[in-house]
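sanity check this record:
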Amino acid sequence: MKSAIVLTSSLLLGIVVLPVLVAGGDPPPMTICGQQAGSTDTVLATIRTLESGGNYRAQAAGSTASGAYQFLDSSWAGYGGYTHAKDAPPEVQDAKAAENVTGILNDHGGDVTTVPVVWYIGHVPGPTSAEWDTVPYPAAGNRLTPRQYQARWMVVYNRLVDASTGVGTTEASSTTTEPAADCLGGGVVPMDGDWSLPGPRSLIDANPSALDQPHHDYPAWDWLIPVGTPVYAVRGGRVAVARTWPYNWWNRGCGSEGGNGCDTCGIGVTIIDEQGTHWTYCHGSALMVQPGDTVLAGQQIMRSGNTGRSGTPHVHLEIQVDGVQVCPQPLVRSLYFESTGIDPASLPSAGCRF
């Protein structure tokens, strides 16, 4: 395997900005979770997408990396009788990449989240290693840490998986189940009427009183949950805003007024549903969606965190109807106890703050 990937500026321009993750000095790094690999073809398609945009003739500037998978000449090692990967036909490049992917998965118990890390830096660092948050070989043009590259890669991979299996459509959503642990992507089966709890039911089971917690200064709901917990869309709609400030307000020295780029929401997203209701989720550690995306109820939209103006890891849920903030607590209680949604326009705008 190659020891590093050269991501040229031209390649980066073809990659949409996806997750932004918490850097060192702020909240603890997210747990790296496992996810069993699906089709090798999907893994290969993900690598091609991020490495070269699918260009089998690509040549990295300032490096010997070439071809759709950006193999260094040293790791290509004359495969198939070709000196450079870009000179080999697509089927030969695919075969070489498939061999390497199989080797990575065999070495790591089939965990597909290890593929991008090994492809990027040649190995998987230890869970507490500073290498996760260090840009490798920046002189070669790299701009992402292994953690950031892994998160970006997994978003593309899960989207390709969804596209190949039909997940994300109304028909397929009825068979989607809650993902193991807190892995990227996935979702839960929506309730009747296309509603969903904002996170794993098991966390509410452990502390149902959290459903009644008032917000500190305006109608909203703060749910204290561990960093990395999957956060689901309570209601489907269009992603209108994605916020990507990856720091904690207090650790960053924002003071009480902010400034210097400080963002109270941190990493978060606002979704507008068919009725025009705004659903805002804040303080995440990574986003699964981007502006313009259409999401369904129960689809994972981010992972919880401690970014923005946050005093402890939690997810902030805010609902606005015609510009007026209303209390989410009665809705979340109904979803948990009755598996039934409530028209946001009927939610109170008082009684959930202190």
